[in-house]
Design goal:
The protein is α/β, with parallel strands linked by helices. The protein has eleven helices and twelve strands. The structure holds pyridoxal-5'-phosphate.
Length: 379
């Protein structure tokens, strides 16, 4: 059984994807080919923002926004404690200080009450200047932007939406990628919209910032490529990736998002009485980057993982370690007493196989194995 269905997806889209790839090779327009602009135009329109700027990966996308916002030493950037390392890594990389905030145990997204507490704490300490909130759309569900926006306005902070896992998600009719002052996504192969290697993009309505990012992603170019007006990065999306993303994006919009939501609903129907299934808030729509269940404790989680492995059912633990406990951040002040939920989640979460091409038969195998295990736990 495939965990993410990349082979099943390729078999389904083979004709369109192969054609897209060979056209780039035939045109030999490997860098900045016309497919880049085509993709950026389509994605900006879908997300509902003025500008989409593709780049080399989702981590650079975050860094490019922080560079354009001139974030650096003495700045505080608030980041959820329960996320992929890159969300916080880019903050330290910019020279600023990440301040970790606990998350909500049901949505896995940043806890807005604790966010405001953390901002007040940093102001009271007086060492750092609060500048940015990085809100992560974890596992596919957008963060609570209505509440985050109120806090950001109150303390004059910018919102950076890390939608590496959220692309395709919605709140009401609004798409993920449109909620922050800027937003980013990743096309890493197993993200909701993945390419065949590394890739990423930035979304914003701010034309000045878009111009700056366009420069920063291309060696700080000025009016032309060999006029370098600032120090930037080499962070372009390959034409090959843009070209194959075009048919993949079409499939994503036309049926994949719908199919993965149906498959997630089926897990929920069958599993909700036995384990804690994901909670999607009313009016929210998830793109299901991951289907994460919670068990009673670490012992039960690890035993279930082993029992599923025995039956050749792949599962993952996202994430085993909270940000505040990462070795790379051991230089930061210890705020672990403020972060009990994320530490607890790391012990209890387990991610099940889910993708748009999963069959009901495959899901039934997963469901039956979980029910059999749970009967053994509480007969
Ligand atoms: C994957 C991911 C990133 C980084 O994206 P890459 O394309 O792998 O650099 C950043 N934030 C989150 C939440 C992610 O899941």
């Amino acid at each position: 059984m495939e965990f993410k269905g990349l082979k099943q997806q390729y078999n389904f889209l083979k004709k369109e994807v192969d054609t897209a790839i060979s056209s780039v090779i035939e045109e030999t327009n490997f860098i900045s080919g016309h497919q880049i602009k085509e993709l950026e135009t389509q994605l900006a329109q879908y997300v509902g923002v003025k500008h989409c700027l593709s780049c080399a990966n989702g981590t650079d996308a975050l860094s490019l926004v922080l560079m354009a916002w001139n974030i650096g030493p003495k700045d505080a950037v608030f980041v959820p404690d329960f996320t992929f390392f890159a969300s916080a890594e880019v903050v330290s990389f910019s020279g600023a200080t990440p301040v970790f905030v606990d998350v909500d145990a049901d949505t896995y997204n940043i806890d807005c009450v604790k966010l405001e507490d953390a901002i007040k704490g940093v102001i009271a300490e007086g060492n750092l200047l609060p500048k940015v909130i990085i809100a992560v759309d974890l596992f596919g569900q957008p963060a609570e932007y209505d509440k985050i926006k109120v806090i950001a306005d109150k303390y004059s902070l910018l919102i950076l939406e890390d939608s590496a896992q959220g692309f395709g998600g919605k709140i009401g009719g609004k798409h993920a990628g449109s909620f922050g002052d800027a937003a980013t996504t990743s096309f890493f192969p197993v993200k909701p919209l993945g390419c065949y290697g590394d890739g990423g993009a930035i979304f914003t309505n701010d034309s000045d910032i878009a111009k700056l990012i366009d420069s920063y992603r291309n060696h700080g170019k000025g009016s032309y490529k060999y006029d370098n007006v600032r120090v930037g990065l080499n962070s372009r999306l390959d034409t090959l990736q843009a070209a194959l993303l075009l048919p993949k994006f079409k499939a994503f919009v036309e049926f994949e998002l719908n199919d993965i939501n149906n498959a997630a609903d089926y897990y929920k129907t069958m599993l909700a009485s036995f384990v804690k299934v994901p909670y999607v808030k009313p009016l929210y729509y998830s793109s299901w980057a991951q289907y994460t269940i919670q068990l009673k404790d670490e012992k039960e989680r690890d035993a279930l993982k082993a029992a599923l492995k025995e039956k050749e059912i792949p599962t993952m633990i996202y994430y085993p370690t909270p940000m505040h406990a990462q070795t790379a951040f051991s230089n930061l002040p210890d705020r672990s007493p403020e972060l009990p939920v994320s530490s607890e989640l790391c012990k209890r979460v387990l991610v099940l196989p889910l993708h748009p091409y999963i069959t009901k038969t495959e899901q039934d195998i997963v469901i039956d194995a979980i029910l059999e295990f749970m009967k053994g736990v509480c007969p």
